[in-house]
Design a protein that fits this description.
This protein is of the alpha/beta class and 325 residues long. The chain is built from 10 helices and 11 strands. The chain has a 6-stranded mixed beta sheet with strand order 7-6-8-5-9-11, sandwiched between helices. It has a 3-stranded antiparallel beta sheet with strand order 3-10-4. The protein is globular and about 60 Å long. About 6% of the residues have low confidence.
Amino acid sequence: MARLKSLALALAGLAALAAGPAAAQTKWNLPSAYPGDNFHTENIAQFGKDVESLSGGKLTITMHPNASLFKAPEIKRAVMTGQAQAGEVLMSLHENEDPVFGVDVVPFLATSYDQSKALYLASKPAVEKKLASQGLKLLYTVPWPPQGLFSKTAVTKIEDLKGAKWRAYNPGTSRIGDAVGAQSVTVQQAELAQALATGVVTALITSAATGYDVKIWESIPYFYDVQAWLPKNMVFVSQAAFDALDKPTQDAVMKAAATAEERGWKSSMEKSKWYMDQLVAKGMKIEPPSADLKTGFQAIGKQLAADWLKKAGPTGEQILGAYSK
């Protein structure tokens, strides 16, 4: 009997040891608003794999793409309130909280990948400071391809957009809709395909990547490559969740994040032409903007840039000063 008791105790001890590593494992949920096959989402999936590998399995990240856990405007708040540990959002979605979040969608301020990277580096300290005040930590950012104009009807000048049902997805695109005399309606990406199919949206500025994701050629025949701006998605984590990790695991997260940022920017550049080629293959008319259309958008851009700088104040001046160098 004593031997059986000793054996039972030994087996219990072995079970406890075996359960130790599993009990120590930390799990994060990371909601995103974009489809599973979008290049941003694929990059996050690889980021999660890298974190698990580099941490020796101590941290696993479960992705929730396509707004399946939270809708796009809800993700940041969900992480701030502890409903999720990390998240991905379009940075400019939160420009109303602070102008610094909208710097990369000021029309025609940064229209190439090199300019976008320079603007990112100039604005990164201010973005990190704002996020820190909200209990969040920036992990990395990745830009979308340059934004172009999609329209159900031909557009040769700004006036042609008057009365169009204009898709807005952040404060900046709402202001552009107002400036061109369109009827703005807020539609996030998860609902965009339906809005296009039902005629709720007839014109919009977005990337060829988004156009491809929502099969925009089924509803919209025209695309004008105005290259208005390169908006960025940011991946961030609750500072409390990050602080709860041990130092080696924190290092693993930041190393994986640095790799994801480099990989994501490269992927965006490589895929930019591919997405355009897919639109052409689907029969879309891809054209450069006419001189009148370009001039009209540039005038709107100057006004919106002045408006942004007025709201951003000294911080905005500091960012643009660093960017201009």
